[in-house]
Design a protein that fits this description.
By secondary structure, this protein is mainly α. The chain has 10 helices and no strands. Helix 3 (103-171) packs antiparallel against helix 4.
Amino acid sequence: MNITTKINKWAMFKEKRAKAIVEYIEVRKRQELAKALIAEQTKRILVNRLGELIVMKKREMYMKIKVGAIVKRAVNKFKQLLGKENKRQILKNAITSAFSLTNSTVDQDCKQKLVKFLKASQEKTEMKGKVVNTVKALLDIQKRMRNQAATKWTKVDVLKIQWEQILETISKSKDPHAIQLAKRIREVPSEVQDGVLKQYISRCRKVHSIAFLQWRMLHPKVSVYTDDRTLEELILARINDLVKQLNPNNKVSKQTDQKAKLTPRFLKDNGLISVQRPFLVNCFPQIGIEDPFPNDDLTVIGSVDDDDCKIAQKHTDLIYDAGRYQDEFSPLCIYIPRKELMLKMMRACIDVKLES
């Protein structure tokens, strides 16, 4: 073996040894990583197990506290049942009677007392249920009344929008008389406006109550008011009340009538001519209100005479158009007036003073 061969073998040995050292280092690293992972996993398992033990312990403590509370409530209830009498004396008497009576007598006496106790508890439970149901019914009625009141005054807000739209239309007119009329309407106090519109809505609701009863008559339902005679009497009573509301002496003052006069072409020039529609309030007598300006049809082009408006006389005279009486649902309240009617209400408020 020459020197060159020995040198080559030594180089190969050093190369293999270096590789072995590297592999050994890698193996150690993997072992350390595995130990760390195992330790971490073991730690997590221990923590989870410890958490479960803590939860179980808490549940046991909670159950003990809960059971203790139940027992405490039962003891307090028993004390309440005993009343203000001497508890020791009652216990002594119970023991004495237990020894003095036979087993059958004791059992029978216990049964009777238990039955009395259960009956009393049942009566209390039933009474509590009735009270709770009554309170719920009252709250429900209160809620519905609030919703109806809110809906009622929402209609007033809708009418105020129509009021402002008509007022804006008049204000944009080139006619000096129309501009002056708009100025006078703007001076109407808000309290007067609210009072007029609320009174108008109240009358519309009264008319709607007649229409609702007529719908009940046309489409009988399982209700209190299913008797035709009862419905007829109710409808006629409300129609008579509506007719009584008409008072020819209810007129605007001469000063208001003078300041609120319209020129012959006022409605036509301002686009306020409106025809009668089944979904509108077409005349004041329709809702039991006297027309504040009954002679407009004689001097103003496009004004409709209220005498042409027919008022219900019999219970079969439908308040609304026949198409609004559907079997599936009752007719909605009609309260939007024609433009001319809203303008008349606006004019009737001119120069109205608030009561001091």
